[in-house]
Amino acid sequence: MKTFVEYPDILHADRQLAFSETFLTTGTSSRGVITAAGTAAVLNVSGGGVALPTSTTDNSKSGFKPVGNIVLLAAGKTAWMGAKLQYSEANTNSANLLVGFISTVIASAMQNDGAGPPSSYSGAVFFKTDGGSANWSVEVSNGSTQSTTELSASNTLDKLAKPAAGSAYQYLEVLIYPKSNTYADVIFRIDGVTVFKVMDWTLTSIAAMSPIAMIMAGSTTAETLNLRRVDFAQVI
Predict the structure, then answer these.
(1) Domains in the chain, CATH or no CATH each
(2) Whole-structure pTM over 0.90, yes or no?
(3) Most buried of 119, 129, 156, 211 (most Cβ within 10 A)?
C-alpha cells in the first residue's frame, strides 16, 4: 500500500547536513564549485546571487554543484534542495536547464543538442531542453530506469502549465523521502506549490548524488542563469 509524507520537517531532525548558498562574494561559492563557460558575476540584488552565463559555443555549460556527491539515500534519510532562479531565452527556445539532485558532474549532467538529462544516472530533477517544450519537465532516474513527465496543465497537480523561462524568479524544490531502503516518494514544488509527485521510486542500487543548478546553451547565442540561492538539507 502506498503512503506519502507531504513535507517532513527535515530541518528539525536531530542530525542533519544543511547549507544555504547565496553567492555573496565575487560570484564564488564556499559550498561547491561554480562552473561558468562565460564569466560569472555577482547579482546586484538584495540577498545576493550570481549570474552564470554560457559562452557563445553551442552546448557550453554553466552551473553550481558541490564538489562531491554528498547525498546517499536510505530509509529515513530524507533529502531536500531548493533553488531560486530566473532566466529569459536569449535565443528563442534555445536554453537547456537542469535543477535538482544528480550523480554526475556538470559537464555530463545534460546531453548535447537538446537531448535532456543523461540516459543513465541517479537523481531527481527539473529540466527544460532546447527545441522542446517551453514547460519544465521532471524526471526520476535510477541508472537507465527513468520516469519523465512534462509539467503541462494536464499533468500538474494544480492543473496549470509550468513554463521555465520568464522575468520572475521561481523557487524550485525537490524533496526525496525514503520510506525504506527500497522505495522513496519524491515531491516536486514550484513557489511553494506541489506540482508533481512520484510514488514508490525504487532505490535499489541508487548512487550518491548532489544538488545541482545549471544552464546549457542550445545555439551560438549565450544564455544566462540568474541564481539567487541554493538550499540543501539531509537527515544523516
Answers:
(1) 28-235 (2.60.120.200)
(2) yes
(3) 211
